[in-house]
Amino acid sequence: MRLMRAVNRILPKAWRQDLPPIIPVVRLNGPIGMVTPLRPGLSIGAVASVLERAFSFKDAPAIAVVINSPGGSPVQSTLIFKRIRALAEEKKKPVTVYVEDVAASGGYMLACAGDDIVADPSSIVGSIGVIFVGFGFDRAIEKLGVDRRVYTAGTRKMTLDPFQPEKPEEVKRIRSLQREMHQSFIDLVKERRGDVLTEEDKTLFTGEFWTGTKALALGLVDRLGDMRSDMRARFGDKVVFKVIAPRRSLFGRRQAGSWTGDPPSLVSADDWIGALETRELWQRYGF
Questions:
Q1: Catalytic: 157?
Q2: pTM across the whole model
């Protein structure tokens, strides 16, 4: 199809065929952050080449980005957001984001990379906030008679260590960092959506999340629908969708987002904990 389009461009105008428009589709699925055998997710390294290929379609009238993510790393969310916007401006291509089940927290940050956002009425949208989750094991190891020995250079290298009692000054420090990250998130949403938001900050930026229908009323999305119906309404019934997937290696494994460390049989306890954290992240939104 791409060869036909290339040939079509060099033919005299009278000889050119009326080919259906192609819409490149990029799917951003899963938590945002580290990739492990038990925790496949999104990172700039995993999606950069996919985005580059999607924006390489010269005749595409728009790029479709389908999001289904409960969030995760604020840094990776920002990097992916910036890459989408940079490519959109460089290639002069409008980007429409389609929310499936969830675009929450960092997932909603990715959605803001779109020039417009379309959500299903039952999608979960929002959660514009920052969260830190941990455990405290200090009383447990005391009961077990465990003596933990840690040596550091730097008085704050053990901030919020789960095996020591929580210290008020450390909690204060973490909350200060959270406020900074939260404000950056708020600024990004206002930059991208400020002219259509319908509620005040105290409503939109508490970390609450809503259905797609309510998100439309709040100005967090632009309309309700699905990718197929929306693109056909805009570009005609003959529109062709081209899903841009990560390339496969010689042995059939996906290169982008694939794990290249220990095989699944040798995963560590951290991987199992990470998998449980990922499950908890999804369950927060009912999935």
A1: yes
A2: 0.79
Residue 242, Cβ neighbours under 10 Å: how many? 16
Q: Exactly one of 69, 105, 123, 127 is catalytic; which is it?
A: 105
pLDDT digits (tens, 9 = 90+) for 57-101: 999 999 999 999 999 999 999 999 999 999 999 999 999 999 999
Q: Give how far Cα 112 sits from Cα of 76, 88, 145, 174, 228, Å.
A: 14, 13, 50, 26, 20
Given the residues 58, 157, 167, 238, select the one marked as catalytic: 157
What number of other Cβ atoms are within 10 A of residue 151's Cβ? 5
Domains and CATH numbers, the chain: 20-127+197-283 (3.90.226.10)
What DSSP string runs through 82-131?
Answer: HHHHHHHHHHT--EEEEEEEEEETHHHHHHTTSSEEEE-TT-EEE--S--
